[in-house]
Give the backbone structure.
Amino acid sequence: MSYRCPLCNGFIASHVTCPACHQLASDYGKLEDYEGPYSPYADYSAYSELHSMNQDAPVCTHLLYCEVCQRSSPLQVREWGPNLE
C-alpha cells in the first residue's frame, strides 16, 4: 500500500459523482489491484511511474463504481509526500 496516497490512507474521502448519472460513486480501491493476479505485490514505484508518466505530480489511480448505473471509471488522486504539496 502506498503511504503517499491520501485516499488509500483515509486522510480524505472520495465524494465523487458518476460522470454518467451524477450519483455518488463508491471507491473500490487502487486500480493496480485489478490489473493482474500479482499486481498488489508488485513494486509500487513501477506503478506510480506508469500511471504518472504524463502528469506533473505522481498520482494514485482508484477505481470508482456507480451502483445506480453500474459503470466504473478511474479517479486519479494526487499523492502527498515530502516534496509534493
Notes: The beta strands are 26-30, 59-66, 71-78. The CA atoms of residues 1 and 71 lie 25 Å apart. Helices lie at 44-51.
